[in-house]
Amino acid sequence: MTARPLSPRVPADRPVRAVLVGCGGMSAAWLRAAATVPGLEVVGLVDLNEGAALARQSEFELLHAQTGTDLDAVLAATRPDLVFDCTIPDAHHATALTAFSHGVGVLGEKPLADTLERAQDMVQAGQHAGLFHAVIQNRRYDPNIRRVRAFVEGGRMGAVTGVHADFFLGPHFGGFRDTMEHVLLLDMAIHTFDAARLICGQDPVSVTCHEWNPAGSWYAHGANAVATFEMTGGVVFTYRGSWCAEGFPTTWESDWRITGTRGTVRWDGGDHPRAAVVTGTGGFFSEFEEMELPPLAPDARTGGHEGLIRDAVRVLREGGTAETVASDNIKSLAMVLAAIESAESGQKVSVTW
């Protein structure tokens, strides 16, 4: 499924109108970000519990936004340009198809869907309708991963050969995650997998994954995983992760080593990614120049949720393709689901989408 550039849909003389569906915890981050985006108006709030929608309406002073429990009814009444889908993954498919049936685009919370089949159906439906359809992968819009990607793409470290990520944290969430199956892979690893795709610019081919729940884990299932992905271009991506690692935590962005034919990039997920680039060869070890990565280009896409929402507004006004368009982001979901299949079967699994 190839992303198709969209034609402009919203004229410059009126705001882009959005309805947010799913007024739980994540919706606050979306509404905070939306409030900073010029030319955007939230005209509706939908939740199965109308009290949750009313609470968000009051909290964010969206006094003119319509609230309700029925997405069909609110879409018919408000005639928006975009749905912000903050529902649970199981509801993403129904939400997207409802929006598309009203001629409304969708910017959705990750993951794209709860199964690959539903994700494929959503992508095909959005493309058939010619509507905006993208996923919030907010970590792509971290300014430091943008610096890493720009340096890798610039070629000073040669061709990328390997991408390696460590993710070790010990969050005590409580709630649904404590009993969730494949909790690390399904709830968190998609961020790291999607970041790996961004960094190396390659697509997944196959994966071998081992998942386990170590002694002392406060989760019921699968808090640890290691995975090896074969990518296009001969690149190998390795992932080591734990959500019950006490002590010496990584950042939420993971700890990265990207190797190339002429150097290496190290990034601990913080503000100071570094590179070591070959300057001389012929000895037992090559000679290197170590450096901090250059600053961002002025036009780099950053800003987390705000940046992604801003880009959605831009595409609706000017046309084009969102970076996290669903037809591309389905590859990150496919990585997660293939890793789970490999962990369950003990076999190497092809990554298909």
CATH architecture of the largest domain: 2-Layer Sandwich
And the CATH topology of the largest domain? Dihydrodipicolinate Reductase, domain 2
What count of domains describes the coordinates?
2
Q: How do the helices and strands follow one another from N- to C-terminus?
A: EHEHEHEHEHEHEHHEEEEEEEHHE
Q: What can be said about the biggest beta sheet?
A: 9 strands, mixed
Distance between the termini: 8 Å
Q: What is the helix tally?
A: 10
Shape: globular
Radius of gyration: 21 Å
Coarse structural class: alpha/beta
Give the beta-strand count.
15
Low-confidence stretches: none
Describe the structure.
This protein has 353 residues and is of the alpha/beta class. It folds into two domains: 16-139 and 303-322, NAD(P)-binding Rossmann-like Domain (Rossmann fold), CATH 3.40.50; 143-299 and 334-350, Dihydrodipicolinate Reductase, domain 2 (2-Layer Sandwich), CATH 3.30.360. The protein is built from ten helices and 15 strands. The protein has helices at 27-34, 50-59, 71-78, 92-101, 116-129, 143-154, 183-187, 189-200, 304-318, 326-345, and strands at residues 16-21, 40-46, 66-68, 82-85, 105-109, 133-136, 160-168, 204-212, 224-231, 236-242, 255-260, 263-267, 274-280, 287-292, 349-350. The strands form two sheets. Strands 14-13-12-11-7-10-9-8-15 form a nine-stranded mixed beta sheet, with helices on one face. Strands 3-2-1-4-5-6 form a six-stranded parallel beta sheet, with helices on both faces. Strand 2 (40-46), helix 2 and strand 3 form a beta-alpha-beta unit. Helix 1 (27-34) packs across helix 9 and helix 5 packs antiparallel against helix 10 (326-345). The longest helix has 20 residues, at 326-345. It starts with 15 loop residues before the first strand and ends with a strand. The model has no long low-confidence stretch (mean pLDDT 96). Residues 145-266 form the GFO/IDH/MocA-like oxidoreductase domain. This is Gfo/Idh/MocA family protein. Residues 17-130 form the Gfo/Idh/MocA-like oxidoreductase N-terminal domain. InterPro entries: Gfo/Idh/MocA-like_OxRdtase_N, Gfo/Idh/MocA_oxidoreduct, GFO_IDH_MocA-like_dom, NAD(P)-bd_dom_sf.
